[in-house]
Structures are given as structure tokens and as C-alpha cells.
Amino acid sequence: MQVLNTNTSLVNPFFNNQIKRRIAMITKTNKTSFQYLRKLLVLPLAAIIAILFAFSYKSQSNKIIDTALEKPVTIVIDAGHGGNDPGATSADGTAEKNITLAIAKKVKALNQNGNIKIILTRDNDILPSLKSRTELTIKE
Prior knowledge:
Layout: H1 17-27, H2 32-54, E1 73-77, H3 96-110, E2 116-120, H4 130-139
Parallel strand pairs: 1-2
């Protein structure tokens, strides 16, 4: 019955003062110049790491996109409002219907591609019905 008479402790002996002291003696360096050098090298290393993560590399490729159209394309621009529907009105009294019509006409005038046909749902101050707009898109 020797097993029952063993003296085992419930506390791990690692936490005893003597073991802590021995580990501290093994890892401690007595040379102050080495400690100073180690602290001095941390600054440039931290700066290099910060610089590496501060910039991102983006692949720059000069891809040329061919915008030539193989077949004609029809674009319908609906200049909103018109006629008795002025839309929103600005502080100086300019109606939204006039601005949208001017922008639509300008876009049509800027078209220089022969394969792009631009159709306006209205080119004067009228209010086309929804049915006439859809018929225009189906017809073209």
C-alpha cells in the first residue's frame, strides 16, 4: 500500500518561486549593450513593416477596348415631363421639362457614331403618352 502513502500536491510545482527564478536567470541577458541594440533594431523593423503595408500594388495594364459596333444600335432617350407637366421648378423658375429636353437634344447632337441612332421621345414641349413612347421603342 505504498501507493496510498504518496505525498502528491494538488498545486503544480511550476509556480514555485525557485523554478521561476531559474527560468528568469536562463532568459536574462546581463549585457546592457545587447539590450540597447535589440531595442534600437525594433524601430527600423517597425518602420519597414509599416511602409510595406502602407502601399498597395495595382496592376496597370494598357488594355485597349474596341468600341466599334458591328451592327447599328438604336437608343431612345425619354426627356421627362413636357406639355402641361413642368416637373420640378427651380428657385429662378426654370422648369424641369426644359432642362431634360435640352440635355436630350445635346446628347443627340453630340453623337458622332454612325452606327448609333438616337431617337427622342419628344423634341418639343409636348407630353407624349406612355403608349406612344412604348410604340416608338417597338417601331424602331
